[in-house]
Amino acid sequence: MSQDTEVDMKEVELNELEPEKQPMNAASGSAVSAVMAGGTEKNGLVKIKVAEDETEAGTAKFTGLSKDELLKVAGSPGWVRTRWALLLLFWVGWIGMLAGAVVIIVRAPRCRELPEQSWWHKGALYRIGDLQAFQGQDAGDLAGLKERLHYLSTLKVKGFVLGPIHKNQKDDVDGTNLEEIDPAFGSKEDLDTLLQSAKKKGLRVLLDLTPNYRGQNSWFLPNQSDTVATKMRDALQFWLQAGVAGFQIRDVESLAGAPLHLAEWYNITKNFSEDRLLIAGTESSSLDEILTLLGGSRDLLLTSSYLSASGFTGKRTEELVTQYLNATDNRWCSWSLSQAGLLASAVPAHLLRLYHLLLFTLPGTPVFSFGDEIGLRAAALPGQPAKAPVMLWDGWSSTNTSGPASSNMTVQGQSEDPDSLLALFRRLSDLRGKERALLHGDFHVLSSGPDHFSYLRQWDQNKRFLVVLNFGDAAQAARLRAPGLPAGVSLPAGADLLLSTHPGQKEGAPVELERLTLQPHEGLLLHFPYVA
Asked: pTM of the entire structure?
C-alpha cells in the first residue's frame, strides 16, 4: 500500500468506541505506537477508507424535479384528465352516500309521539283508609305512618290515598271541619312532615275528604248539600296550598247533584295545578251511572264496583272491559273492584293472583287497598273488624287474636318467598312503571278459548306484551287468534314467558302460541320484540 493512499485513509479506532475490547496487557500502548508509525496493524485497530467523493461509491445524487419541471408534468393532458376523473368520482360517491342516507331516513318507520303523562298515569295508587288498621300494634297516627314509607316505596306505587283524617262528629255537619286534622291522627305539622318525607321517597299523598265518614250518610242529609259544598270548596283550596297531590271523595252516588259538584271540584283542583288529581268513588256497577258521574272531566278518575259484575268469567270480563273503554272513548281510566274494599273480599281466592295480573296490565291506573298485595281479607283472623282488618306485618301484628298469624299471610313471610303474592305484586308494579307498552300502549283484544280473556299491549317499536288469562276450572288451550288488528300489528309464532301467576314456570322459556295451554285459573304474561 503506497504512502499517498495511506494519506487518504481515515483511521477509526474501534477500541475507543468499545473500551471493553481493549487488549488487557501492558504492551498495548507500544502496539498502538507501532501502528501510528506505519507498522503492522495490531489487535483493536482497523483502517476504513471513507470515500470523500460520492461518485467513488458508485451512487448518483438525486436532486428531484424542479418547480418548473413539476408544473410542466402536472399540466400535461394525461395528468389533467386523471385529476378531473378523481374529482368526479369523489363527488359522485359523496352524493351517492347522501342519497342513500336520505332514502334510509325516509323509509324508516316514524316513531310515534309520546303522550303527555302525569304521575298517576305511571303506576298504581294505594289506599290507606284506616291508619290504625294499617299500622297495627296500637299505632295509627301520622308520625307512625312515616315509618312505613319505605315499605310503600318497595311496592313501586306512585302515590297513596290517606284517610279520611279530618275532624268529623258523626252525622253533625257543624261539628265537621274538613280543614282540621282529628287529634287522634296527629297535627297539621305531622302531616307536613309526612308530605316532605313522602316526596323524598317519590310518593304523592292524596287526602280522602269524604265529609261524614263516621256517620250513616257520607254526605249528611240532602238539605245540607249546599253547606257541605261550601265546606268542600274551602277545604280543597286549603289542602292544595298545604301541598297534597290530590283528593279522593267516596260515595258520590249519595251526593245530590253529584255531576255538577264533581265538575266544580275537578276544576278547582286542575286550576291550582294540572299535576293534581281528583278521584271519585262509587259503589255503583252501572256503566250508565258511571258515565254520568264522569261527565266531561278528562282526568277525573272513578273507582267503582264495575268489574265485580263479571261473574268472574273470562268472556264476561272481556265484555265489561271492552264496553267500558269504548263508552269512555278510550279516555284514561282507573281499575279496581270497589271504591274502598279489599280485593280478596271481592274476588275468589283461586283467582286473586290472576286479578292482580289483569289490573296491572289493563290500560289505565290500577287502584289497590292496603293488604291487597298480601291477599288480606276482611275478618281473616278472629277478633278483627270486618271492614278494616289489621295489616299483617308479622305473625304478631294483631293484638286481637289468640295466636300468631301464619307466616305466609304476613308481609315479613311473603317478603322472603319469591313465589308469594307480594313478590308477584312488586314484579308487576315494576313492569307497569317502566314498559312503554304497559304505560300507555294500545290495547287489542284477541280471540281465545271460551273461559279465556286475552289481549295485546303494544306501543310503536317497543316490546309487545301478550296477556292470557284462564278463568276456567280446567286446563285449556289458548287458541289465540288476532282478527281485526291494525296494519303492522300481528301475533308471532312464538313468544317468551315473562311470568306466570302459577309458581314454577320457567321465566324466559320460549312458547309456541299455537300450542299454548294454560292451567286452571292461570294467567300468563308473555313478550316478543317488534319486527318491522
From this structure: 0.80
